[in-house]
Amino acid sequence: MTSRTLTGALIAGLVAGLLAAALNLWALTPLIQEAETFEGATVHVHEDGTEHVHEAAHSHEAAPEGLARSFGTVATTLVAYAGFGLLLGVGMATAARMGHAPGLRTGLLWGLGGFAAIQLAPAVGLPPELPGTASADLAARQMWWALCAASTATGLAALAFGRNAGVAALGVALVLLPHLLGAPQPPSHDGLVPPGLAAAFATRSLGVAALSWALLGALTGLLAQRAPRGALA
Amino acid sequence: MTFSIARLRLDSETLAIAFAAVLGLGLVFVAGFANASAVHDAAHDQRHAIAFPCH
């Protein structure tokens, strides 16, 4: 049962990754490319108050373009979702051993929980951002992101499976903790990316993630459920 | 006898879960955090899309 759940989770990760990659290429990559025309550009203000933008000649000269770029996006999205799937499978297999049998509906809840922990909660402190957006030190943001994802996931698990008020209170505290600490923020949010473009990107990023995680969870639950009862390994 | 077989199976399941956890974390690290520039360039758009901190 356990290894069927884990294998199913890996397969579900690849399927959800394909969906996420297709949605990324369709809805998000064009916004990234548009933002890159602003990245590295400088605003030149004249003495009479008029201003114009000097576009950067080459901000990403080494980055792959065209088909190679799309291939990189698809491949690494599959890697990310295979990882997400395995971690979700680890959670579901552990819960199954404690008597919470996996299925399509519980799987969907697991997927939405994963979305909340990996995407929604980190986005509260560090909104999905386009290239060229002002942001704080990379290592500090990565640290906060990892802390937020782990803390939210643990907190949600405590809320879902805790059997008394104390565990539930701990769950609430763990979900709130990263936001009480606060995500690393840039000194100012000045950037050259138009606010409308940044808003569209953040919203679409969360929408794509919500759909992909819902599919990931539901499919992982379904594949675990289909495993023959009592089958060894 | 039954008990010890049950224990054995329990332990191999624990190992499978631990292995999957390490592998899953490793894949997420490569996709979202690894610094090597080849990995970063290929993963660039995906990192922005999934909102892994990038740049």
Automatic annotation (TrEMBL), chain A:
The keyword Transmembrane helix belongs to this UniProt entry's keyword annotation: yes
Keywords recorded for this protein, A-Z: Membrane, Transmembrane, Transmembrane helix
Keyword Ion transport: no
TM spans (from-to): 74-95, 107-124, 144-162, 167-185, 205-224
Protein name (Swiss-Prot/TrEMBL): Cobalt transporter
